[in-house]
Amino acid sequence: MTGRTESRGALLPFIAALLAVAIACRRTIFGMLRYADYKFTDISPYNIAVLTPNYFDNGFIRRGLGGSIVYLIDGGTAAHGGSAAAIYQFFGAVMLALPMALLLRRLIARDDRLWRWFAVFMLVSPQLFWGWSRDPGRSDMLICGIIAWSLIAALGGRFFIPVLLLFIGSLIHETAIIYGGPMLVAMWFLTHRQGKVDLAHGISAYALLMVLLALAALARQHFGDDVTGIAATVRGARLVADNGRIFDIATYLTWSGFRSIGTSLCMAFSDRAVPWVIAACFVVLLVNCRVLFDRSLLVKCLLGFVALVPMIFMSAIAIDHGRWLMFAVSNAWLAVVAVRVMGIETAQPTVRDRRISGALLAALVLMGPTSAHFPSYLAEKLMPRLFTNNHPKWLQDCTPDWQATLGPPEAVPQH
Description:
Protein name: EpsG family protein
Keywords: Membrane, Transmembrane, Transmembrane helix
Shape: globular
Transmembrane segments: 86-108, 114-130, 142-161, 202-219, 273-293, 300-319, 325-344, 356-378
Order of helices and strands: HHHHHHHHHHHHHHHHHHHHH
């Protein structure tokens, strides 16, 4: 292989990353190009509301970092429109696609031909960038990106950097810990087996993470607004008064603590379709793991720990089952690639395995991309037809005084 060919091959992962970003941001890019005043063309007001509270207006609140980033993107205002959330979507996509490209490059350096398959999977999987494109304005890709960067640091046996990254991610959403924590434990176990880190290093790193999380929780009690102060910011910043109820719903479900978890569980358990949706997510995750060639028992156990366990936990307390599936598939991709980068798994799949994986991936693609609540577009359309007499409870049924929790509504002028 000539030097020019090697150089060209080294660039291919970054081309794949660029395509992945374009896929994830396809709707927002189109909206910004088409509309001079891009607001809610493709971004849910719910997502806008979640990104409105920030450290500048509300102090050190839970999940305040994402809103603070959007606040800065929009030039120091909380009354941001869809354009700021679209840029945030782009930032998250880049933060995930870039470390994935770096991992693919490491596979190329190991002369692992399977890197092409992982690149194709990254681009066409309905549970990765294609799925995230359906719900712009979420922080999910950014969280997965932080987990990916922490994994890269952990591969070198440096665990204090991943701990700091996961702590930063927890300031955006707790999924950074719920999905990133098991990934970090798994990477410590694997690097410890290879003699790169000792037990004391791992324990001290995790102890630091626990201390940081405890200090953050204590700081929020003393230096951050309560839910009424957050609601006032969201209500005052919304772009159109008609969105008031959606903004209130987002505020309640995001910042009302255990009370909102109880409401979510009430809504979930009253919906006869939910157990089937969770079961479908479980099956889709298993299919994705098979597509990623989970050959050895070690890899199967690894995927169960870093992908399945966090997904089950999140599905038990929150109703965004499709989102928890996409987090799980992202973790599965990272874990499978990582064990090959580390040289733990080196065997190439047989022709039969490749054909089975190709057929399964094609089936996933035909079912369509994941949404926030469903594992695929097909499931999203089938569930209402299968459960025609389903009458799940909604917010006012489960928590009649939910809106009172936010404080009295205020008159909001049209912007």
